[in-house]
Amino acid sequence: MDNVRRFKKVKIALMRSKQFAALSGLMMLGKTTLTDAVRTACTNGRDELYNPLFMFRFDNNKMAGFIIVHENMHKAGRHMWVYKKLYDIDKQLANAACDYWINQKIVDADPGAELVEMPRDGDGKQIGLLDAKYKGWTVLQIFNDLRENQDTQSNGFDEHDWEGAAQLSEQEAKTLEQDIKQAIRQGQMAAIKAGAGSADDLLGLGELLQSRVDWRAQLREFVNSTCADKQESSWRRPNRRHLQYDMIMPTLQGESIREIVLARDASGSMFYKDRLTQVTSEMVAIVNALHIERVHLIDWDGKVGQHETMTSEQFKHAPQVKTVYGGGGTDPSCVTNYLRDKKIKPDAVVVLTDGEVLQWGKWDCPVLWVIANETAVEAAPVGKTIRITE
């Protein structure tokens, strides 16, 4: 079988599989070329290049499958744009951080190596970056950890075409971002048809669609100014190595909030134009962005309808996150009254709402209002306000 036919066979098998069907839309996006112009494999975030001598050096399609999934995960994460600043700081570690993030997700999606396995070199030795330590970490967290540990030996098996991505015009980049999101949604539907339930999301692609807010930046500002644990062990001083770039880049790894309330508006107006889905997505993004020792999930309308307490890890898998209790009026003061009655004293409260309220309440702790509304509404007169649509 020639390399082109063999490549197509591997790709089709991946697109039909329970493990990797979620990438099927992305696998159809952009141009795919088999060429010796690259040493191994490469993507600019849209197009893919593969060296067939590297892909098929062994009589094992699983290795080729791993490489294909790897390149498409770069596309899914929009790594060539999202992490360009990291690349400007340290090219090698930016490459490594992206690869560690990807490879762990691939192994988690196919732990028994039924379809894919890590590539090997000419001597049969496994190559590529994989460390279970980074399971669940973000690319930024991995990058900061590599810098702090002065890891300069991290090399992946593929090439990253940052320069090629930079050649796209601003309009091309915006169009591509929308195309990628649409391709991920198409892939999610294909995954369900392939036998992966909507809750499985084996590659964690759903998180790439959810948040419209840069929560790391927003929370860093909010937490630093209002609710951070001031102990030095929780919030480290900026690393001096960053200062030469005129940048202050504290990592959220190791930083924590002791206790936070996520108060989700469950009033009738929130069931209009998918607002509940929007605020729930942002709520999940907040928990993913920051380590929180104790999370209070409170649903409210005119009164508190649900209150669950959990750790940030428990929150990520809690069924209560997808189950909303409410449908009545809108009075956020019921939340602050409830907190007083229950003697709950959080570091901060994040209220997720459409902002269609008559009164904002009186708060005894820092409050961050996250507003999902296609119509402009006034900023809250107390606390800080973020509009998702902006």
Keywords:
390 residues; alpha/beta; Rossmann fold; 2 domains; six-stranded mixed β-sheet; four-stranded mixed β-sheet; 16 helices; 14% strand
Q: Could you characterize the architecture of this molecule?
A:
- The strands form two sheets. A six-stranded mixed β-sheet has the order 7-6-5-8-9-10.
- The protein folds into two domains: 3-207, no CATH class; 218-387, Rossmann fold, CATH 3.40.50.
- Helices cover 40% and strands 14% of the residues.
- It has helices at residues 3-16, 24-27, 52-55, 61-76, 79-82, 84-89, 91-109, 139-148, 162-166, 170-193, 207-210, 215-227, 240-243, 275-289, 312-317, 333-341, and strands spanning 32-34, 41-43, 48-50, 159-160, 256-265, 291-300, 304-310, 348-353, 367-371, 384-387.
- With 390 residues, the protein is of the alpha/beta class.
- Residues 228-255 have low confidence and may be disordered.
- The protein is built from 16 helices and ten strands.
- It is elongated.
- Helix 1 (3-16) crosses helix 4 (61-76) and helix 7 crosses helix 8.
Task: Present the secondary structure layout.
Elements: H1 3-16, H2 24-27, E1 32-34, E2 41-43, E3 48-50, H3 52-55, H4 61-76, H5 79-82, H6 84-89, H7 91-109, H8 139-148, E4 159-160, H9 162-166, H10 170-193, H11 207-210, H12 215-227, H13 240-243, E5 256-265, H14 275-289, E6 291-300, E7 304-310, H15 312-317, H16 333-341, E8 348-353, E9 367-371, E10 384-387
Parallel strand pairs: 1-3, 2-4, 5-6, 5-8, 8-9, 9-10
Antiparallel strand pairs: 2-3, 6-7
Helix pairs in contact: 1-4, 4-7, 7-8
